[in-house]
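Give me the fold.
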Amino acid sequence: MVSNLTFLAATTTLDRLQKIPKEFWLKAGGAVAAVIIIFIIIQKVLKINKFVLGGVVFVGGGLMWFNWVYHRTEPKFLTPIVDRIAPFFPSAGAYETKQTTMPGDSTKKK
């Protein structure tokens, strides 16, 4: 008789799903929504004129690159390249350094 009642004590799949925290379901739903949105965006981007898309990517990449050079927040693998290029562009600390010197003071003393 005991073996016939064991199925009543077994947890159902619905019970196990209800025990999963709501945060998990929010994150899982967000991930599914993100995949759908990315797929829709990719389809829209593929319909854009390639010349315009290239221009937007070039300008956006250039802005990101110069921001990295100015603030020196580039990824570690790009640091050797940025080290060589950075002296030719302004940097975030250069303005403060220049402001600490008095007008008329030259860097070369006679």
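The chain is about 70% helix and 0% strand.
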